[in-house]
Amino acid sequence: MPVKVETYDRVEEAARALSASRSARFLGGGTLVMRAVNAGDQSFDTIIRLRDPDFRTIRMQGDGLVIGAGVTMAALVANRDAVFLAPVARVIGGPAIRNMATVGGNLFASGNYGDLAVALLALGATVQLAGSGSRSMPIDEFLRDRDRHATSLVQSVTVPRPRDPATFRFTKVSRVKPKGVSLMSIAALLPQSGGRVQGARVAYGAMGPMPLRAIAVERALEGQALDAAAIDRAAALAVEGIAPPTDALASSWYRAEVAGVHLKRLLAGERR
Ligand SMILES: Cc1cc2nc3c(=O)[nH]c(=O)nc-3n(C[C@H](O)[C@H](O)[C@H](O)COP(=O)(O)OP(=O)(O)OC[C@H]3O[C@@H](n4cnc5c(N)ncnc54)[C@H](O)[C@@H]3O)c2cc1C
Question: Which of 108, 137, 149, 152 has the most ligand 1 atoms within 8 A of CB, as the residue to mutate?
Fold first, then answer.
Protein backbone atom coordinates (compact mmCIF):
# COMPACT_ATOMS: atom_id res chain seq x y z
CA MET A 1 0.00 0.00 0.00
CA PRO A 2 1.45 3.41 -0.94
CA VAL A 3 2.17 5.75 1.97
CA LYS A 4 1.47 9.46 1.59
CA VAL A 5 3.92 11.91 3.17
CA GLU A 6 2.66 15.31 4.36
CA THR A 7 5.20 17.94 5.43
CA TYR A 8 4.30 20.96 7.57
CA ASP A 9 6.28 24.03 8.61
CA ARG A 10 4.37 24.80 11.79
CA VAL A 11 3.69 22.59 14.75
CA GLU A 12 -0.01 23.58 14.94
CA GLU A 13 -0.55 22.49 11.32
CA ALA A 14 1.12 19.14 11.88
CA ALA A 15 -0.85 18.62 15.12
CA ARG A 16 -4.11 19.37 13.31
CA ALA A 17 -3.32 16.96 10.47
CA LEU A 18 -2.35 14.22 12.93
CA SER A 19 -5.45 14.57 15.09
CA ALA A 20 -7.70 14.59 12.00
CA SER A 21 -6.73 11.09 10.88
CA ARG A 22 -6.52 7.75 12.70
CA SER A 23 -4.53 6.35 9.77
CA ALA A 24 -1.72 8.92 10.07
CA ARG A 25 1.56 8.54 12.00
CA PHE A 26 3.86 11.32 13.02
CA LEU A 27 7.45 10.86 11.88
CA GLY A 28 10.06 11.66 14.50
CA GLY A 29 13.42 10.18 13.60
CA GLY A 30 11.65 7.27 11.94
CA THR A 31 13.68 4.51 13.61
CA LEU A 32 10.44 2.70 14.44
CA VAL A 33 7.98 4.25 11.97
CA MET A 34 10.12 3.51 8.91
CA ARG A 35 10.81 0.01 10.18
CA ALA A 36 7.04 -0.47 10.30
CA VAL A 37 6.67 0.89 6.74
CA ASN A 38 9.38 -1.47 5.51
CA ALA A 39 7.71 -4.39 7.29
CA GLY A 40 4.46 -3.65 5.42
CA ASP A 41 2.48 -2.31 8.40
CA GLN A 42 -1.01 -1.56 7.04
CA SER A 43 -2.28 0.28 10.11
CA PHE A 44 -1.40 3.70 8.67
CA ASP A 45 -1.29 5.20 5.19
CA THR A 46 -0.04 8.74 5.91
CA ILE A 47 3.16 10.04 7.45
CA ILE A 48 3.20 13.53 8.96
CA ARG A 49 6.51 15.40 8.99
CA LEU A 50 7.36 18.70 10.70
CA ARG A 51 10.12 21.14 9.68
CA ASP A 52 9.69 23.69 12.50
CA PRO A 53 13.23 24.36 13.85
CA ASP A 54 11.81 25.11 17.35
CA PHE A 55 10.82 21.47 17.49
CA ARG A 56 14.51 20.57 17.62
CA THR A 57 15.75 23.05 20.21
CA ILE A 58 16.74 22.74 23.85
CA ARG A 59 16.36 25.79 26.10
CA MET A 60 16.53 26.64 29.77
CA GLN A 61 13.35 27.79 31.50
CA GLY A 62 13.81 28.64 35.16
CA ASP A 63 15.17 25.52 36.87
CA GLY A 64 14.02 23.31 34.02
CA LEU A 65 15.03 22.38 30.53
CA VAL A 66 12.52 22.51 27.67
CA ILE A 67 13.49 19.85 25.17
CA GLY A 68 11.79 19.90 21.76
CA ALA A 69 10.26 16.54 20.91
CA GLY A 70 12.30 16.51 17.68
CA VAL A 71 15.64 16.69 19.53
CA THR A 72 17.72 13.60 18.80
CA MET A 73 19.65 11.48 21.29
CA ALA A 74 22.90 12.65 19.65
CA ALA A 75 21.86 16.30 20.19
CA LEU A 76 21.04 15.55 23.84
CA VAL A 77 24.45 13.99 24.38
CA ALA A 78 26.10 17.09 22.89
CA ASN A 79 24.11 19.66 24.89
CA ARG A 80 25.85 21.13 27.95
CA ASP A 81 22.62 21.99 29.76
CA ALA A 82 21.35 18.44 29.34
CA VAL A 83 24.50 16.86 30.73
CA PHE A 84 22.51 14.90 33.34
CA LEU A 85 20.66 13.13 30.51
CA ALA A 86 23.77 12.35 28.46
CA PRO A 87 24.46 8.98 30.20
CA VAL A 88 20.93 7.90 29.23
CA ALA A 89 20.91 9.17 25.63
CA ARG A 90 24.40 7.72 25.08
CA VAL A 91 23.24 4.12 25.62
CA ILE A 92 20.26 4.28 23.26
CA GLY A 93 21.07 2.19 20.18
CA GLY A 94 24.27 2.73 18.21
CA PRO A 95 25.48 5.99 16.60
CA ALA A 96 23.15 5.71 13.58
CA ILE A 97 20.10 5.25 15.82
CA ARG A 98 21.14 8.09 18.14
CA ASN A 99 21.48 10.43 15.15
CA MET A 100 17.83 9.83 14.24
CA ALA A 101 15.97 8.73 17.39
CA THR A 102 14.03 11.59 18.96
CA VAL A 103 12.85 12.43 22.46
CA GLY A 104 9.20 12.44 21.27
CA GLY A 105 9.54 9.03 19.62
CA ASN A 106 11.07 7.56 22.77
CA LEU A 107 7.93 8.43 24.74
CA PHE A 108 5.96 6.10 22.46
CA ALA A 109 8.55 3.33 22.18
CA SER A 110 7.29 0.13 23.77
CA GLY A 111 8.71 -3.17 25.02
CA ASN A 112 12.46 -3.09 25.59
CA TYR A 113 12.69 0.45 24.25
CA GLY A 114 11.92 3.76 25.96
CA ASP A 115 15.07 4.23 28.07
CA LEU A 116 14.88 8.01 27.95
CA ALA A 117 11.20 7.93 28.91
CA VAL A 118 12.21 5.97 32.04
CA ALA A 119 14.71 8.68 32.97
CA LEU A 120 12.16 11.44 32.29
CA LEU A 121 9.64 9.62 34.48
CA ALA A 122 12.09 9.47 37.39
CA LEU A 123 12.92 13.15 36.89
CA GLY A 124 9.25 14.15 37.03
CA ALA A 125 9.11 15.67 33.54
CA THR A 126 6.06 17.37 32.04
CA VAL A 127 4.85 16.62 28.50
CA GLN A 128 3.50 19.41 26.26
CA LEU A 129 0.97 18.43 23.61
CA ALA A 130 0.45 20.70 20.59
CA GLY A 131 -2.63 21.70 18.61
CA SER A 132 -6.13 22.76 19.50
CA GLY A 133 -6.11 20.60 22.63
CA SER A 134 -2.68 21.94 23.55
CA ARG A 135 -1.89 21.24 27.17
CA SER A 136 0.78 20.06 29.59
CA MET A 137 0.59 17.02 31.78
CA PRO A 138 2.87 15.10 34.14
CA ILE A 139 4.72 12.35 32.31
CA ASP A 140 3.14 9.78 34.66
CA GLU A 141 -0.27 10.71 33.30
CA PHE A 142 0.96 10.86 29.71
CA LEU A 143 2.49 7.37 29.86
CA ARG A 144 -0.53 5.87 31.63
CA ASP A 145 -2.82 7.00 28.79
CA ARG A 146 -0.21 6.72 26.05
CA ASP A 147 -2.44 4.81 23.64
CA ARG A 148 -5.03 7.57 23.86
CA HIS A 149 -2.37 10.09 22.78
CA ALA A 150 -1.60 8.26 19.53
CA THR A 151 -3.17 11.09 17.51
CA SER A 152 -1.65 13.88 19.62
CA LEU A 153 1.56 15.63 18.70
CA VAL A 154 4.08 15.93 21.51
CA GLN A 155 5.72 19.33 21.12
CA SER A 156 8.24 19.27 23.95
CA VAL A 157 9.13 17.87 27.33
CA THR A 158 10.07 20.04 30.31
CA VAL A 159 12.51 18.44 32.70
CA PRO A 160 13.40 19.81 36.15
CA ARG A 161 17.21 19.80 36.33
CA PRO A 162 18.49 18.00 39.43
CA ARG A 163 20.19 20.55 41.73
CA ASP A 164 22.86 18.02 42.54
CA PRO A 165 23.59 15.85 39.47
CA ALA A 166 24.69 13.01 41.79
CA THR A 167 21.07 12.62 42.97
CA PHE A 168 20.03 11.33 39.55
CA ARG A 169 21.10 7.82 38.58
CA PHE A 170 20.38 5.56 35.63
CA THR A 171 21.35 2.05 34.70
CA LYS A 172 20.53 -0.06 31.67
CA VAL A 173 20.74 -3.82 31.96
CA SER A 174 21.27 -5.49 28.60
CA ARG A 175 22.65 -8.78 27.37
CA VAL A 176 24.71 -7.23 24.55
CA LYS A 177 27.04 -4.31 25.26
CA PRO A 178 27.27 -1.56 24.22
CA LYS A 179 24.32 -1.57 21.82
CA GLY A 180 21.86 -4.07 23.27
CA VAL A 181 18.31 -3.14 24.17
CA SER A 182 17.13 -3.11 27.76
CA LEU A 183 16.33 -6.25 29.64
CA MET A 184 15.51 -3.68 32.27
CA SER A 185 16.41 -0.06 32.87
CA ILE A 186 16.21 1.77 36.19
CA ALA A 187 16.30 5.51 36.85
CA ALA A 188 16.26 7.06 40.30
CA LEU A 189 16.03 10.61 41.54
CA LEU A 190 17.17 10.70 45.16
CA PRO A 191 17.10 14.28 46.49
CA GLN A 192 18.22 14.58 50.10
CA SER A 193 17.54 17.09 52.82
CA GLY A 194 19.35 16.95 56.16
CA GLY A 195 20.96 13.68 55.10
CA ARG A 196 17.61 12.00 54.40
CA VAL A 197 15.90 11.16 51.13
CA GLN A 198 13.00 13.46 50.33
CA GLY A 199 10.89 13.11 47.21
CA ALA A 200 12.44 9.92 45.78
CA ARG A 201 11.27 8.86 42.33
CA VAL A 202 12.30 5.47 40.99
CA ALA A 203 11.26 4.27 37.53
CA TYR A 204 11.67 1.04 35.56
CA GLY A 205 11.71 0.27 31.86
CA ALA A 206 10.92 -3.14 30.30
CA MET A 207 9.22 -4.18 33.54
CA GLY A 208 5.67 -3.59 32.31
CA PRO A 209 3.76 -2.44 29.23
CA MET A 210 5.32 1.01 29.61
CA PRO A 211 7.77 2.79 31.91
CA LEU A 212 6.44 2.65 35.46
CA ARG A 213 7.30 3.84 38.94
CA ALA A 214 8.45 1.57 41.75
CA ILE A 215 6.14 3.07 44.34
CA ALA A 216 6.97 0.59 47.13
CA VAL A 217 10.68 1.33 46.68
CA GLU A 218 10.06 5.08 46.78
CA ARG A 219 8.06 4.72 50.00
CA ALA A 220 10.76 2.60 51.61
CA LEU A 221 13.39 5.24 50.83
CA GLU A 222 11.40 8.26 51.90
CA GLY A 223 12.80 9.97 54.99
CA GLN A 224 15.67 7.47 55.26
CA ALA A 225 19.39 8.06 55.23
CA LEU A 226 20.67 6.33 52.08
CA ASP A 227 22.68 3.76 54.03
CA ALA A 228 23.14 0.02 53.54
CA ALA A 229 20.16 -0.93 55.72
CA ALA A 230 17.75 1.42 53.91
CA ILE A 231 19.03 0.27 50.52
CA ASP A 232 18.53 -3.39 51.51
CA ARG A 233 14.97 -2.67 52.65
CA ALA A 234 14.17 -0.82 49.42
CA ALA A 235 15.78 -3.50 47.23
CA ALA A 236 13.70 -6.18 48.94
CA LEU A 237 10.61 -4.35 47.61
CA ALA A 238 11.98 -3.98 44.07
CA VAL A 239 9.07 -5.73 42.34
CA GLU A 240 6.34 -5.15 44.94
CA GLY A 241 3.12 -4.51 42.98
CA ILE A 242 4.88 -5.06 39.65
CA ALA A 243 4.35 -7.97 37.25
CA PRO A 244 7.41 -8.04 34.97
CA PRO A 245 6.82 -9.38 31.45
CA THR A 246 8.33 -12.43 29.78
CA ASP A 247 9.88 -11.70 26.38
CA ALA A 248 12.69 -12.88 24.15
CA LEU A 249 15.32 -11.40 26.48
CA ALA A 250 14.18 -12.71 29.85
CA SER A 251 11.37 -14.38 31.71
CA SER A 252 9.17 -12.64 34.22
CA TRP A 253 10.78 -14.80 36.94
CA TYR A 254 14.30 -13.77 35.93
CA ARG A 255 13.42 -10.07 35.88
CA ALA A 256 11.85 -10.35 39.32
CA GLU A 257 14.95 -12.15 40.63
CA VAL A 258 17.52 -9.65 39.38
CA ALA A 259 15.61 -6.37 39.76
CA GLY A 260 16.58 -6.04 43.43
CA VAL A 261 20.24 -6.71 42.66
CA HIS A 262 20.43 -3.98 40.00
CA LEU A 263 18.38 -1.58 42.09
CA LYS A 264 20.66 -2.11 45.07
CA ARG A 265 23.74 -1.36 42.99
CA LEU A 266 22.14 1.79 41.59
CA LEU A 267 21.06 3.07 45.01
CA ALA A 268 24.51 2.33 46.41
CA GLY A 269 26.04 4.41 43.62
CA GLU A 270 27.75 1.46 41.94
CA ARG A 271 27.17 2.25 38.27
CA ARG A 272 27.97 -0.32 35.61
C1 LIG B 1 18.35 -1.03 16.10
C2 LIG B 1 17.52 -0.26 17.10
C3 LIG B 1 18.03 -0.10 18.39
C4 LIG B 1 17.29 0.64 19.34
N5 LIG B 1 17.79 0.76 20.59
C6 LIG B 1 17.06 1.43 21.52
C7 LIG B 1 17.58 1.58 22.84
O8 LIG B 1 18.65 1.10 23.19
N9 LIG B 1 16.82 2.28 23.74
C10 LIG B 1 15.62 2.84 23.39
O11 LIG B 1 14.99 3.47 24.23
N12 LIG B 1 15.13 2.71 22.14
C13 LIG B 1 15.83 2.03 21.20
N14 LIG B 1 15.33 1.89 19.95
C15 LIG B 1 13.98 2.38 19.66
C16 LIG B 1 13.94 3.78 19.04
O17 LIG B 1 15.02 4.02 18.19
C18 LIG B 1 13.94 4.89 20.10
O19 LIG B 1 13.03 4.57 21.11
C20 LIG B 1 13.63 6.26 19.52
O21 LIG B 1 13.76 7.25 20.54
C22 LIG B 1 12.29 6.39 18.85
O23 LIG B 1 12.26 7.70 18.32
P24 LIG B 1 12.01 8.03 16.78
O25 LIG B 1 12.08 9.50 16.66
O26 LIG B 1 12.89 7.27 15.88
O27 LIG B 1 10.53 7.49 16.64
P28 LIG B 1 9.67 7.26 15.34
O29 LIG B 1 10.03 5.96 14.72
O30 LIG B 1 9.73 8.45 14.45
O31 LIG B 1 8.24 7.19 16.01
C32 LIG B 1 7.91 6.18 16.97
C33 LIG B 1 6.43 6.39 17.39
O34 LIG B 1 6.31 7.62 18.10
C35 LIG B 1 5.42 8.50 17.43
N36 LIG B 1 6.00 9.85 17.55
C37 LIG B 1 7.28 10.20 17.32
N38 LIG B 1 7.47 11.49 17.64
C39 LIG B 1 6.27 11.97 18.07
C40 LIG B 1 5.81 13.22 18.52
N41 LIG B 1 6.61 14.27 18.64
N42 LIG B 1 4.51 13.34 18.85
C43 LIG B 1 3.66 12.28 18.77
N44 LIG B 1 4.04 11.06 18.34
C45 LIG B 1 5.33 10.90 18.01
C46 LIG B 1 5.37 8.01 16.00
O47 LIG B 1 4.19 8.37 15.34
C48 LIG B 1 5.48 6.52 16.21
O49 LIG B 1 4.23 5.98 16.57
C50 LIG B 1 16.04 1.18 18.97
C51 LIG B 1 15.55 1.02 17.69
C52 LIG B 1 16.27 0.31 16.77
C53 LIG B 1 15.72 0.18 15.36
Answer: 108
